[in-house]
Structures are given as structure tokens and as C-alpha cells.
Fold this protein.
Amino acid sequence: MAGFPSQSLRVYSRAIEKPGVVYMAASKINGIILAAGLGTRLRPLTERFPKPLISVCNQPLLGHIIRKMFDAGLSELAINTHHLPEAVNSFVKALPDSSRIKLFHEPEILGTGGPLINAKALLASGDAFLLHNGDILAGIDLSSLLRKHLESGAMVTMALLDGPENRVSISPDGLVLDILGRLGDCSEKARLLTYAGVAAFSTSFFSHLPDLPVKTSLIDAFLSAISSTPGALRAFVLEPGTYWNDLGTAEQYWNAHRDILLKNSLKLGGASIPEKGALLCPEGAKLDPSAHLSGFVSLAPGCSVGEGADICNCVVLPGAHIAAGDYRCNEVIGADFSMHRDHRRLVQMRVLGDIDWPQTRISSLVEQGSDRRFYRLKMKGGRSEILLVSNETDADFGRFVQLGEFFAAHGLPTPKIFRASREEYAVRMEDLGDATICRILSKGISPDETLKLYEKIALALLHFQSGGTCALKKDAAAGIRLFDYDYLRWETSYFRERFLEKLCAFPKERCDALDAEFHLLAESARSQPQVCMHRDFQSQNILLHDSQIRFVDFQGARIGPVAYDLMSLLRDPYVALSDELRDFVSRRYWEEAARLGLVPRLEQRQYDFWAAIVWLQRGMQALGAYGFLSMVKGKTQYLRHVPRALASLRSGLSALRKLGNPELQDLPALTGICNDRLLEERARERLAAAELPWI
């Protein structure tokens, strides 16, 4: 760590000038960092490190705070210790400016006020002093705080923000009136704010503290000062957007890395943060070239990442090892522990009441288009479950549970439901692994292997369709919905509104001509044989588990057109498939569907016509979804699929024209819009704004 400035607070040793006013400031300001806390909410991390020494982007938090205080011109610092004091002692002694820092050990924690009494000789040797909590990571301008304090003549100036615990009452002119409502100040004009853990003090404040270093509360002393000297405490309200994080939980610690690496919310002086990108990989971190990193990743010296590992939004600490092929997401990973971002929330859930948490590792699964969160719970003995957590806005949650139990009871290839809580919108279910078809193809397999895999998927789909259709005829308990005319028209309206009009800003009057053609498509689609359909049958929702094809994300299942799932599979924008594979799998599917009695035996041309109709339906639904996810949900990563999906829609229109089926005229309005240069130009502009290529 570089040395800190050795000068005293020179800016305050001169007159501070403002228009019409000249302020004389203090000549010397010292400071104290409160660093004795146990950090219980950050266990097990704080069982290995004292909380002020936990690293943020590989820089100890205490070092960042010390640097900021010396950069603001402070002369000397006091630091109190209690938990793992030797680690703090060693860290401070190694600093070039350790002679300007004095440690005060507390065999018993002295609260928030006692440390000031313990360090009174140092703090009172100046004209003012600055207090900074040792667990605060913030972009507070300490020089401005001190300047305001010295100008105002206040006894205490508290840094405040509109935050999570607004319990400090201030007047319109910035006087602190009350804290925690203890003085009963109920002024209608008062504003409630959160104490930021940073404050400037005049030495006269010691008159409100005991003479001897005993356990005492700063809040009690603050209230004493307010009661005896109205106006003694003033507010320094942080500007909106000023970064502040008290690092109290695993989620807040995780957030700090996300905010620095992904959002650039705070510049961390002294840390080697990349100017662009969200990967921190210092010298001494071993990263296999084949590993895949996404979101933000902070690697520490001494950690290692194995071959083919997949890491998303993780903090990897010294000594941690990510095994070859492992998938880790939303975690803080140590040498012998892991803390998930959402751990505190999950351990309180009743649906997980039987989990032995010390023996359980939590990891997130890849987040898709919905707002649901999925977690993998790896327990002692190798057992693993998937946890789904949703919320009250999820209209499909009850349907997910109902259909999941129904399909599993009839031996269909969906995950088994172990336990569900409709009150907590949570489901525990079978873990089918990470081998989605999308991931398998992305790692590269031969054309022959791909063809055999897709033939196997098509046969598994037929098993689901025939088994589900038979089960629903015998037992309507699942209450499955119909993919009827109204729903088919909803899909095409979704395409028009979300993709054409919103994402591409295509003229509304041009879109009006689509209505008649969408009517014809819906009528044709609903005339096909109707079967139990998955409704989102694409490569990210299909897995290979124990050599068997399994399906997830099935809550949209309906009774609908027989060809819809097949075309969702073969015209999937997430993977590239050859025309030869599509032709082979399509013919194989229709042969087996006829043998099973799902469709009558017809000429291949009729099957191709059915397929072309829902090819268009599915293609428009996908483009509508990308418009919604990017424009409404802010998930602009889905825009990367627009080029392939739009090309597929154009190909579907061409295929339909070649079939020349008299049941359906050409679709001139849809064809004209899809081939219009304006449409592609607008879509390209959206991708360019999101810094995505058109491929």
C-alpha cells in the first residue's frame, strides 16, 4: 500500500473564504476509526478476518478508510480493536504511516462512545476530530464535511443520507432535533434521515461523555448534547447518488463488488480496478483460459479457477478453488466456505426449515427472462435440490406447482416437486443439473452427435405430448389452459406492440394492416390437432440428466397446436442448427406422432404447412418477448437474439409461400414489414446502443 499524506490539515490552517464571509478554521484535526465489532452477520467471513480487514476488490476496507482520512488532511488516527486484534495490529504496523496511528485494544467492547473516551488524549489534542465507522464504504467528501463543521461552529456534524434506517430527525435548516424518537420531537417539517457512520466533532463534545472509558453509547451522548444545547448537532446531508454501504451482510458485501466493478458507482483509491469490463484478476490469481466469466468477477491473489469453470457475479477470496466444470453464481467464495448473496433471506424461509445450513452450500442458477430466482442447495452427503423463489406478482406460480405435481405423478420428464409454500412463493424440487442443450451445443459436439441428441429430444417431446394428453383426458385436475384463438392473437399482438411499435418504433399505421393476417394465422393454427404442449420448448429449458431428456420451465403448458413445440425446438434462436438436422428431426417426429395417434397419417406437405404456421407464431412471440425484456425489464442482453430471430421469421414466411397452401393466402403485410429496411435499421440501432453486434 502506498504511503499516506503526511501533512496536517493545511486547508484548515488558513482562512476559508466564501462570498461575503471569511471563516477561520482549526489548525489540527485528528480522527478515530471504530473497528472493534464482531461482524456477526458476515460470518463465516469474519471468523477468519476482523470486519475492517475484509477486502473489497482485494483492498482491505480499513486501508481504504485510513487513506481517505489522511487524504482529507488528518494528522493522527486512533483505531479501537477487540475481535482478532493481532490481525489489525499487523496490518497497521506494515503501513508506511503507522507512526501516525495509535491502536486502543478493548478487552471488552466499549460500545460506540467508550472508544472516544479511551482515545481522548489523542482526539482532544487537536481542535476537532473525525469519527469513521470501520465498516463503512462510502464516497463521502470528508474535506467538505470537516469544512462545514468548522464553519458552523457546531459541536457535532453528522453525515446523513436518505437511506435504509431513517431515524435521525432534522429541521429544514439542518439542525439535528432527535434520534430514534427518544426526545419526542414531532415537528411536521422535520425530515428523517439515516446516520452514515461518519461525523465531525468539536472537543467540547467530551463534556457529554463519562470521564473514564466505560461502555457507553454515542446516541445517548448525542441526545444529551441536543437537550442541553439546542443546535449543538448539525446535519451534513449527502448529495443524492453519493455512494454508501455499511457492509453489514453478505448481500451488502457482494453489492459493494458489483457496484464498483459493474456499475462504477465508487472509485476505490489504491485498488487496481479495470477501466472497462468487470473482471478483477490480479497477479497471483490462477485462471484457466477455458473458464467462462460473466457479470462481475473479483479474483484474489492465491485463488484458482479450474478448466471449464463457469463463474458469474462472484467474489473469490485468497485460497479459494473453483473446481473444473463447476458453476458458481452470486457467491462470496473462500478457501473453506461460501456465502451466497441471498443467504440471510433464505435461512429465514419456512419452506427450508429442515435444512442444515452450516452443511449446505447455496449457488444461484442462471437468471432467465422471468423475475423468478433459482438456487441450488448442495447438502451434506451429496444431495442437491433446486429452490425456486417468486413473489406475489407471479400469476403462474400456483400453476407451476399444480402442473409440476401433475406431470411428475404421471411419469412425465419434468422435475419432481418435493415441497412447496404458496405463502412464500417457493418450491423445492429435483435438481436436474446444468447440462442444458444450449450449454452442450455451446461447448461443441459433432454434427452426428447433435443429430442423435435432437432425435432423442423429439422422441422425449412426443412422450410428453402423448402422455400428457392422455393424462389430461383421464384427469382434469391440473386445470391446464387452452392455447386457443384468443391466446394465439395475444402472441401476435405482443409482437406488434413490443417489437414493432416499441422496440423498432415502426409506424402504427403500417402495423394496422397486420390484423387480418394475424386472424388467418390464428384460425389456421387452432385447426391443427391439439395436444399437451410445453409452450417454451427451447434449448435453455431442455436438459440431459443421467442420459435422459428432461424439461423445466413448464408452467406455460397448454393444450394447443401439435407443431408448436417442435418448431420452438427447431427454430430456436439460442442455437444454430443445420437444415439437414431440421429436416431429419421433423420427419422423424411426424412419423412417430402418426404412429402414436397424435396426428393422422398425411402427406409430409401437410405437416410442413402446420409447422410453417406455428413457425411464424413462435417467431413473433419470441421477438415480442425480446422487446418486452429489453425495453420494460431492462434486460438488454436479450437483444443479441433479435438478428437470428428476425432472420428465422423471414425464412418462415418464405417457407409458407413455397408451400402455396390454398387455406392461407400470402401474408403481404407481414412480409413487407419484415423485409422493410426501416425495421432492420431501427433494430440495429437498439443493438448498437446496447453495444451488441448484429450477428
Q: What stands out?
A: The CA atoms of residues 280 and 298 lie 5 Å apart. The longest strand covers residues 191-202. The chain has three domains: 29-242, 250-430, 437-690. The two ends are 45 Å apart (CA to CA).
